[in-house]
Every structure is written in C-alpha cells, then in structure tokens.
C-alpha cells in the first residue's frame, strides 16, 4: 500500500514537471529558451516518472530495463540538444541581438 502511494506521488510529480515544461514550450518564443524548458521535462520529469514505475514493477528485470532506458535518454538528450543549439547559433544571423552581444 505504501509502495503504491509513493509511486503515485512520484508519477504525479513527474507529470507536473512535464506539464510545466510544456507550458514553457508554448510561452517562450526563442528556440534556445524552448530547448531549456524542454530539457527540464527530459531530466527531472522523466526521472520522477520512471522512479514511480520502478516502485510499481514486480520484477527486477523490469526495473533494470527502466533504469537502462533512463541512462540512455540522459546520455542521448544532451547531445541532441547541443547539436540543435549549435545549429541555431551558426545559422541565425541575428543571434548577437538575441543573446545581448554587440
């Protein structure tokens, strides 16, 4: 019973973190600001949701698979975000005005 309640709290916290991140995606106009908002859901929201699912898992194999999925996503997500940000900086001609450089 306690395990289910704790898992529900973790899942709700993860969903809240993801919902706030989605709100940030709609609120911000600039792509780098949107990427920052999306990375919040990627790290914290994913971790909280998967921890909740790990508590509900009945088998060690399922817990291991969920843990490996989190590790893979935490390794792949920063690389993809960096590539997108680097492309934006290299291709945007008005980047100096956006970030405050003269």
Automatic annotation (TrEMBL):
Source species: Dielma fastidiosa
TM segment ranges: 6-26, 38-58, 64-85
Domain of life according to the entry: Bacteria
Official protein name in the record: Monovalent cation/H(+) antiporter subunit G
Annotated InterPro entries: PhaG_MnhG_YufB
GO MF entry, a single one: sodium:proton antiporter activity
Keywords: Membrane, Transmembrane, Transmembrane helix
Family listed: Belongs to the CPA3 antiporters (TC 2.A.63) subunit G family.
UniProt-annotated location(s): Membrane
Pfam families named among the record's database cross-references: PhaG_MnhG_YufB
UniProt entry tagged with the keyword Transmembrane helix: yes
UniProt keyword annotation of Transmembrane helix present: yes
Membrane topology: Multi-pass membrane protein
Primary subcellular site in the record, as a coarse category: membrane
């Amino acid at each position: 019973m306690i395990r289910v309640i704790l898992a529900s709290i973790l899942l709700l916290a993860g969903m809240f973190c993801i919902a706030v991140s989605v709100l940030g995606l709609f609120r911000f106009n600039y792509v780098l600001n949107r990427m920052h908002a999306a990375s919040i859901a990627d790290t914290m929201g994913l971790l909280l949701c998967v921890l909740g699912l790990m508590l509900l898992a009945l088998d060690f194999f399922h817990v291991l698979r969920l843990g490996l999925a989190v590790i893979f996503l935490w390794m792949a997500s920063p690389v993809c975000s960096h590539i997108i940000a680097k492309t934006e900086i290299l291709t945007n001609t008005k980047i100096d005005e956006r970030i405050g450089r003269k």
